[in-house]
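Supplementary Note 2. Why include the ligand at all?

Several targets in our set were suspected to adopt different conformations when bound, so apo predictions alone were not considered sufficient. For every target with a known small-molecule partner we therefore ran a joint prediction. The input for G3D is given below.
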Amino acid sequence: PIMSSASRKKILLKVIILGDSGVGKTSLMNQFVNRKFSNQYKATIGADFLTKELMVDDRVVTLQLWDTAGQERFQSLGVAFYRGADACMLVYDVTQPNSFKTLDSWRDEFLIQASPRDPDNFPFVLVGNKIDLENRGVTKKRAAQWAQTKSNMPYFECSAKEAVNVEAAFMQLAKDALAQEAASDDAGASELPPAIQLQGGAGQQGGQQQSGGCSC
Ligand code: G3D
Ligand code: MG
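The joint prediction is reproduced in token form.
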């Protein structure tokens, strides 16, 4: 098989998990990394990050998962937390409408602090956690609509407690981050000026390649 060595390089992706205190960020991470739901881990995690290796397509990818140590209560996580993030998981608690309302400010804060090169295509996923509970306060529809208005970010309804959709959400994030990494590598490899726009191309969908020839 023809495989350039450049495409085999080790991939490390920094993933940060944001959302109000108590929504289950630490529990989601724990479930994903250790396949456990346990309150005892809470005290020990919270320092810097946990890592987990996984296969995405046929690549070995190391996810570096950054959790907060409770500072999210003050919405001040510090620049080191955000710096160099490759992907971001936004979490709310489906039984707590307030944790849903703050998603906009978490997303805005992320975009300000991390200032990614291409904010519109930055890999986010939205997680509605605690779907095992009865007292739901935010509908699936409402959350999905919000996600759609934010560059159509993927939305997962999860339970860290019962291990529902947790792996799927992190997998999606890893895939999207890897794809974005590849796209920006390509962009970085050739710092050419943008392709010349043909006149009359204004009606085209944004960013689509012109396919040669002329429509007149
Ligand atoms: P945080 O890291 O976002 O602050 P935690 O949130 O992971 O510390 O979780 C906060 C509380 O929610 C914990 O309960 C935890 O056990 C609970 N929790 C997390 N995920 C789920 C879930 O999917 N379902 C249910 N039912 N509970 C969950 P305590 O009681 O320790 O505050
Ligand atoms: Mg926590």
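Residues 5-201 form a domain with the Rossmann fold fold (CATH 3.40.50.300). The beta strands are 11-18, 49-56, 59-66, 87-93, 124-129, 155-157. Comparable summaries for the other entries are listed in the accompanying table.
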